[in-house]
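hi! just following up on the protien thing from before. the input was this:
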Amino acid sequence: MQALERTYGRLLDLFAIAACALIFAMTLMICADVLLRNVRVIPGLAGLAWSNEISEAMLYLVTLLTAPWLLRRGQHIRVDIVLRAVPPRLGWVFEWIVDFLGLGCCALIAWYSGRAALASYQAGSLSIKTLITPEWWLLGALPVAFTALTLEMLFRMRRLWLAERAPRDDAVSTG
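and the predicted 3d structure came back as:
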């Protein structure tokens, strides 16, 4: 199980690296757009009309790629004031309750977003803006991300089971 969890962690690291590459590409694209709008480097080209649309998609993908990685590292947003105020064993129980809720939500979103992406693919739906693209291209990232979040919730629950019977120490607001 530990080898599987390590391998899964490396996959999430690859997701994070892909997100970094998207941010780098988005930075270059936005800079090129601003440059081309303000300096006529190429005659007849005044900016990249599609750059806003592509940067929106990139931001969406960065969010989806980094969410499971951040959850694994304990760097997600976490309100832990109650966990620190109650006895450790009760805090541990609260962790379980929240993990079960998180697992259920992630699994549900993975399932329904997968159905939506498949329906979009089967219908041949298009996103018509500056660019015309198949709608499922972006919808397809959602079930992948939420399946990864579901798996991470399971690994997270395993780590909680193996740890001390107290709230986690990751992502805490107090030292």
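Helices lie at 2-38, 51-73, 81-85, 88-123, 136-139, 141-162.
The radius of gyration is 21 Å.
cheers
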